[in-house]
């Protein structure tokens, strides 16, 4: 649902960067000779798995929380998310000392819920359906008059997510291409804005699971595909592309009108890329992050010899999925 | 076996630091709020798992290689190691463009052997006994006239390993205590020298597997225990304390004559600490590294409120031990 709020623009990313400075970490850019050799290009990894709360999501949540005027802030924020956004919003709200309500479905991962509660948010459980999440969230919003901060369609969330790419472009120097994962499209749309702001000649490539390829199909069709049932190991990329996210990405075309390129990736390649990251860089990233490296490795010719930026979006792997470490 | 070579001293660590600058990475010092809270002290992690070849071992190997005069360098280096030292020496030799021979026993981990060969060393296989390793190595040394660079007793290796602690002390500011793992004692003895050089008031604590506690027993007895059969998940800490390593550690006493403190750690605690590192810092470290954090967490009272330095010695986990990533 497209609401009446205007779409964020390139300058909103700059404003977000100023707003979240001092709250969000300025994460490092990692290099790995072995992976450069394997990929046949030079890779510059923006380490958002080292961001506060373990994912880039803190940027958007923090921008949304600190954009509120005093009266709105006093009423708090509310969202529905059982994953990184819930934890990010909880921590962002704590950074301003305001209330945060998080609606999470039954069956959500226990460690993620513990993180949300650990940051001081109030958890509200609901049935594991999108309808139940939205209804519970709306009831809470009406009751508390808190501001709804949607995980990826919110104006300030999109602008905030763009700051990761902005910092990467500033730190790594000119990049031929930027590769980011796409699920709901908060990071993808924010990155498009950051490119428009800071480096219009940089190509944007999105990496999407084959089992959740609505963005690929939407951008090809020129209209949102919203009837897909996602099936992928990338738990952070199961959301369908949001309406404002589609609008921003659909408008982000090269000078000859070519739409944004989407590479769809097989889950097995994503898990192999996660393994490569662990072995060669000692960094633990979630599948939803490793997919960007997998996209490059599966299409070497498209990146040969280029300077490639990759946003490692997060590192919140379910510990139960790491048996050796349990 | 103690040979006639003199023991390295504190100034040798300074000389090593100058020698390896530009070859070894100046690795970052990592912080983690969640782990500080869990430990009740402030932890400063020297990230040697991000060192070249994935472990602090590159420091000692590099110092040894670059200490050779031209004639000796032309004859190359030789060692026996199926682990991090073999890869480190191979890479160090490559950095100077000299020959490297590595003796590795049958049954060694395939990925480690591939790394050694990948750095350009000549691999020599032998039977999986210490006697076979030493005999094969000695025969090669005589045949090639290459210099033997022992994994932990070599003068320049010990001095080189001390540079990790030196950099940590320089980067983190005054530390109350430094905790490092101990196996053969290259890192432990080098760290003792670095403390003597740069921060004599810093307490040295060694972390040792309960199933390989020869250092603990040796320092208590005042004589090397050399008949222990190690049994631990920490594959980097199965070597018995070397003679020069014992001599340096035995001499490193507090002003009232107290010997260096050794904390013995249960393997289960080590694996739990490895998991904590992965979950809270997204860093993949080997068990032989995680043991230092485990030691602190198991004895909080000894470190309460203190500024604690930890050398994360390496990150070369056998990929087959990470099933989810395979």
Which fold name fills CATH's third level, the topology of the largest domain in chain A?
A: Rossmann fold
Poorly predicted tracts of residues of chain A: none
In terms of quaternary structure, what is this? Answer: homodimer
The count of DSSP E runs of length 2 or more, i.e. the number of strands of chain A, is 10
Tell me, briefly, the overall form of chain A. globular
Largest interface: A-B, 24 and 24 residues
Strand content of chain A: 5-15%
Give the total of domains of chain A: 2
Give the mean pLDDT of chain A. 94
Could you tell me the radius of gyration of chain A in angstroms?
18 Å
Question: Largest sheet of chain A, described in full?
Answer: 6 strands, mixed
What is the structural class of chain A? Answer: alpha/beta
Distance from N terminus to C terminus of chain A (CA atoms, Å) equals 42 Å
Q: How much helical structure, as a percent, in the residues of chain A?
A: 40-55%
The CATH C-level class name of the largest domain in chain A: Alpha Beta
CATH architecture label of the largest domain in chain A: 3-Layer(aba) Sandwich
Trace the largest sheet of chain A across and list its strands.
1-2-10-7-8-9
Given the structure, what is the number of helices of chain A? 13
């Amino acid at each position: 649902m497209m609401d009446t709020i205007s779409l964020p623009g390139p300058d909103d990313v700059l404003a977000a960067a100023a707003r979240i400075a001092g709250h969000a970490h300025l994460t490092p850019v990692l290099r790995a000779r072995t992976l450069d050799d394997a990929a046949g290009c030079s890779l510059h990894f923006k380490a958002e798995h080292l961001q506060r709360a373990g994912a880039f999501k803190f940027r958007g949540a923090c921008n949304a929380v600190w954009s509120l005027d005093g009266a709105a802030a006093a009423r708090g924020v509310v969202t529905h998310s059982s994953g990184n956004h819930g934890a990010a919003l909880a921590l962002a709200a704590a950074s301003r000392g305001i209330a945060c309500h998080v609606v999470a479905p039954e069956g959500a991962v226990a460690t993620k819920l513990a993180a949300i509660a650990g940051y001081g948010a109030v958890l509200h459980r609901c049935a594991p359906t999108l309808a139940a999440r939205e209804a519970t969230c709306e009831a809470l919003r009406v009751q508390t008059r808190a501001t709804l901060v949607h995980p990826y369609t919110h104006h300030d969330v999109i602008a905030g997510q763009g700051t990761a790419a902005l910092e990467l472009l500033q730190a790594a120097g000119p990049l031929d291409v930027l590769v980011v994962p796409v699920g709901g499209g908060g990071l993808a749309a924010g990155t498009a804005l950051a490119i428009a702001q800071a480096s219009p000649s940089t190509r944007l490539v999105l990496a999407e699971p084959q089992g959740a390829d609505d963005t690929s199909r939407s951008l090809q069709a020129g209209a949102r595909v919203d009837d897909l049932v996602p099936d992928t190991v990338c738990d952070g990329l199961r959301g369908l592309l949001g309406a404002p996210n589609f609008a921003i990405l659909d408008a982000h075309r090269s000078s000859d009108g070519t739409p944004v390129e989407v590479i769809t990736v097989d889950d097995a390649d994503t898990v192999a890329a996660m393994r490569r990251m662990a072995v060669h860089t000692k960094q633990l990233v979630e599948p939803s992050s490793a997919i960007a490296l997998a996209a490059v490795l599966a299409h070497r010719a498209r990146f040969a010899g280029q300077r490639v930026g990759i946003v490692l979006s997060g590192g919140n792997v379910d510990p139960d999925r790491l048996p050796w470490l349990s």
